[in-house]
User: Fold this.
Amino acid sequence: MSFFNSGSTMKSAGEANCLNTEVLQAQDFNPSDLVGFNTLQENKRLDDAINDPLSSLFLCQFSSCTVKIEVPSGKKNVEPTKFRVPDLL
Assistant:
Protein backbone atom coordinates (compact mmCIF):
# COMPACT_ATOMS: atom_id res chain seq x y z
CA MET A 1 0.00 0.00 0.00
CA SER A 2 2.96 2.36 0.39
CA PHE A 3 3.33 2.38 -3.42
CA PHE A 4 -0.33 3.31 -3.87
CA ASN A 5 -0.36 5.95 -1.08
CA SER A 6 2.96 7.58 -1.97
CA GLY A 7 1.40 11.03 -2.37
CA SER A 8 0.86 10.87 -6.12
CA THR A 9 -2.72 11.17 -7.31
CA MET A 10 -1.81 9.65 -10.68
CA LYS A 11 -2.38 6.04 -9.57
CA SER A 12 -5.85 4.57 -9.35
CA ALA A 13 -7.06 1.71 -7.17
CA GLY A 14 -7.64 -0.22 -10.41
CA GLU A 15 -4.01 0.24 -11.45
CA ALA A 16 -2.81 -0.93 -8.04
CA ASN A 17 -5.05 -4.00 -8.30
CA CYS A 18 -3.77 -4.65 -11.82
CA LEU A 19 -0.16 -4.43 -10.62
CA ASN A 20 -0.98 -6.94 -7.89
CA THR A 21 -3.04 -9.46 -9.86
CA GLU A 22 -1.53 -9.25 -13.34
CA VAL A 23 2.12 -8.70 -12.45
CA LEU A 24 3.10 -9.58 -8.90
CA GLN A 25 0.91 -12.70 -8.74
CA ALA A 26 1.63 -13.86 -12.30
CA GLN A 27 3.14 -17.34 -12.38
CA ASP A 28 6.01 -16.20 -14.58
CA PHE A 29 6.88 -13.17 -12.42
CA ASN A 30 10.43 -13.28 -11.11
CA PRO A 31 11.53 -10.35 -8.90
CA SER A 32 15.14 -10.84 -10.00
CA ASP A 33 14.07 -9.76 -13.52
CA LEU A 34 13.73 -6.25 -12.08
CA VAL A 35 17.31 -6.01 -10.79
CA GLY A 36 18.82 -2.94 -12.45
CA PHE A 37 15.49 -1.79 -13.90
CA ASN A 38 15.15 1.97 -14.26
CA THR A 39 11.86 3.49 -15.45
CA LEU A 40 13.49 6.65 -16.83
CA GLN A 41 15.98 4.58 -18.84
CA GLU A 42 13.26 2.31 -20.25
CA ASN A 43 11.07 5.28 -21.20
CA LYS A 44 14.05 6.84 -22.98
CA ARG A 45 14.62 3.60 -24.88
CA LEU A 46 10.98 3.64 -26.02
CA ASP A 47 11.24 7.32 -27.02
CA ASP A 48 14.43 6.58 -29.00
CA ALA A 49 12.75 3.61 -30.68
CA ILE A 50 9.84 5.80 -31.80
CA ASN A 51 12.34 8.19 -33.41
CA ASP A 52 14.12 5.31 -35.19
CA PRO A 53 11.66 2.37 -35.35
CA LEU A 54 13.89 0.18 -37.52
CA SER A 55 16.55 0.10 -34.78
CA SER A 56 14.11 -1.23 -32.20
CA LEU A 57 13.51 -4.96 -31.87
CA PHE A 58 10.48 -4.06 -29.78
CA LEU A 59 8.82 -1.78 -32.35
CA CYS A 60 9.75 -4.05 -35.27
CA GLN A 61 7.13 -6.45 -33.88
CA PHE A 62 4.40 -3.87 -34.61
CA SER A 63 2.92 -2.71 -37.87
CA SER A 64 1.41 0.68 -38.53
CA CYS A 65 -1.78 1.51 -40.34
CA THR A 66 -4.16 4.34 -40.95
CA VAL A 67 -7.53 4.18 -39.24
CA LYS A 68 -10.64 6.25 -39.79
CA ILE A 69 -12.76 7.27 -36.82
CA GLU A 70 -16.15 8.87 -36.68
CA VAL A 71 -16.77 11.46 -33.98
CA PRO A 72 -20.43 12.13 -33.21
CA SER A 73 -21.58 15.72 -33.51
CA GLY A 74 -23.85 15.46 -30.49
CA LYS A 75 -26.81 16.49 -32.61
CA LYS A 76 -29.46 14.00 -33.69
CA ASN A 77 -29.64 14.90 -37.39
CA VAL A 78 -25.98 15.75 -38.00
CA GLU A 79 -23.68 13.08 -39.40
CA PRO A 80 -20.49 12.32 -37.45
CA THR A 81 -17.26 13.95 -38.58
CA LYS A 82 -14.75 11.49 -40.04
CA PHE A 83 -11.09 11.77 -39.11
CA ARG A 84 -8.14 9.92 -40.55
CA VAL A 85 -5.44 8.87 -38.05
CA PRO A 86 -2.24 7.91 -39.94
CA ASP A 87 0.63 5.73 -38.75
CA LEU A 88 -1.10 4.22 -35.74
CA LEU A 89 0.92 1.38 -34.18
Notes: The chain has a mean pLDDT of 85. The chain has two helices and two strands.
